[in-house]
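User: Second chain of the day. Same drill as before.
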Amino acid sequence: MKRISYILLATLLLAATVPATAQNNARRYGVKSGIIKLVASSGGAETVETQYFDDYGNKESITYTIDIPGLVKYDTWIVTKGDKMFGFNITEGKRSKVTENPNPTPDLTFLNPSPEIVAKYNIKELGEEEFLGRKCKMYNYDIVQNRNTITYTGWVYKGILLKSQAKVRRRDVVTYATEFKENVAVPASAFQTED
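Assistant: Same format as last time:
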């Protein structure tokens, strides 16, 4: 049961952290490229993540380690391309493709969202607040997963989600950036889906 909870947590955190990939080469972010170090926490468990993006968010991926003491430890790499997410486990430096799933939020964007996107995700602007030394816009938004609607609060900088929090199954789920390098070179391997 604990293992299932961690897998559910990882899925929820990923949906909150990597909301979408731009459609038709539209800019999702107001920054060309970046590498973001993140911490995701829920119920006392923490996961360290690294998010990579390039081409204003048209290319995006995230890595994290699942470590359940006494049960399992592995690294996961998720690459988002359009409406699909590709998941890989990494063991001893080798990637093995595990899943190809629909992206739960392929069209969610905070950089000039259309009225349809605002309505679909119930996006509401809450004001501004500084986070990680950057002036962020704060939003509430809803994501539906398994017929459950989860309301998140997000701190967004130039379309990039730097912090999010929600209550899921009576647990606080928080993901926040600890470091953000803007407009840096991101290796092409970060977006590779084939060996």
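The chain has one domain: 2-191.

User: Great, on to the next one.
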